[in-house]
Amino acid sequence: MAKNLLFFCLLLSLLALSLELAKAQMAPAAFVFGDSLVDVGNNNHLPVSVAKADFPHNGIDFPTKKPTGRFCNGKNAADLIAEKLGLPTSPPYLSLLKKKDASYINGVSFASGGAGIFNSTDSVFGQAIPLPKQVDNYVEVHKILVQQMGSSGAEKHLSKSLFAVVIGSNDLFDYFGSSKLQKQNTPQQFIDLMATSLKAQLKKLYEFGARKFMISGIGMIGCIPAERVKNKTHECDEERNFWSVKYNDGLKAMLNGLKSELHGLSYSYFDTYSVMHNIIQNPSAYGFNEIKAACCGLGELKAKVPCVPISTYCSNRKDHVFWDLYHPTEATDRVIVDTLFDGPSPYAVPMNVRQLVSS
User: Fold this and answer.
1) ∠210-251-245 over CA atoms, to 5°?
2) According to the model, what pLDDT value does residue 159 have?
3) Is residue 100 predicted with pLDDT exceeding 80?
4) Are 218 and 169 in contact (CB under 8 A)?
5) CA-to-CA dists, residue 236 to 233, 240, 281, 327, 333, angstroms
6) In this predicted structure, what is the pLDDT of residue 300?
7) What is the rounded distance in angstroms from the CA atom of residue 160 to the CA atom of residue 212?
8) Carries keyword Amino-acid biosynthesis (predicted)?
9) How many whole angstroms separate alpha carbon 311 and alpha carbon 295?
10) Is there a contact between 161 and 212 (Cβ–Cβ < 8 Å)?
11) Which residues lie across from 30 on neighbouring strands?
12) For the CA atoms of the chain, what is the radius of gyration?
């Protein structure tokens, strides 16, 4: 009798816990697409890629204190979005391929350091998974979910899930670093092509069940340490910033058009550029005091050598905006994710992510 009672109490507490977890989950799954800003370890599994972060001092503030393939001192934006949603971080797609009992139910990350909207973007980095291939990988996952949940079950599950897309910076870096690309297209033509190509990939995701999109605009790429160090005065590269803004304008217009084109699609566009601009203009308001130099690296602004095991790193990562010559610190990512999740317009339009997943 006592045994039965104990078993019954245990069952009740497990049921209460699962109800609590279900209540805490704001979306059933998060599918992440993008570049190194949200890569949680896919590139670890690419044999010849040089765009990797699976070595110190990356991950020094991660819960395990170990490098995981995140280009950050701790958690990156993908981890923090999952936290807000009440979900575990979506695991890297390539890590699941080797597992027989892999679960895709809470989402997957397809993001890859060095990736761009175009297939060609990864040529500079040796190997990355460009967005069209990431979307193809998602189509494979979609097949598995349909097998596991049935067609209507998968459709319902995916319609409530969050599809986060953080990409575009590498395409612009690629353009400005390539005389060949500059001969083929003016900057305006190139950013128009970026928006058109991204639209095609979003339509493909929609075709395979995606309905709720969080799309991030490009940040102030002219103000990263890698760009500042090229300038004697360490000022931002205004041309790169100008075209980032122009691309973001085109992206917003494209998303607005897409919403009227595709029934049931809703989205939150996040203005990364404006939030980064606020941080750089008024760092102390956000708890920062170093906006130019990287925390981890070597040389001028710690931006002459990337964050590798021989690099030195700052003792207080919370007061640096940038972790390495390209990527933000966890502290910066927290400001960004707090704003995209609960921020007002114009930072998150036409709604923030909390409103998106609740709608």
Assistant:
1) 145
2) 98
3) yes
4) yes
5) 9, 9, 12, 15, 20
6) 97
7) 7
8) no
9) 10
10) yes
11) 162
12) 21
Q: Answer whether CATH 3.40.50.1110 is correct for domain 28-358.
A: yes
The residues annotated with a catalytic role in the active site are 36, 324, 327
Rounded to whole angstroms, what are the CA distances from 347 to 29, 278, 331, 338, 353?
24, 11, 18, 11, 11
Q: Specify the amino acid at residue 206.
A: Y
Return the structure tokens found at 248. Answer: 């973001």
- Mean residue pLDDT of the chain comes to 93
Look up tokens 């995981």; give the residue.
Answer: 68
Q: Does the pTM exceed 0.85?
A: yes
Core vs surface per residue 219-244: b (16+ CB within 10 A) or e = bbbbbbbbbbbeeeeeebbeebbebb
* Cβ pair 272, 219 in contact under 8 A: yes
Compute the average pLDDT of residues 225-229.
98
d(CA 71, CA 113): 8
Whether the pLDDT of residue 7 is over 60: the answer is no
Q: Is the bond preceding residue 57 a cis peptide, omega within 30 degrees? A: yes
Tell me the average pLDDT across 179-207: 97
The span from the CA of 248 to the CA of 326, in Å, is: 19
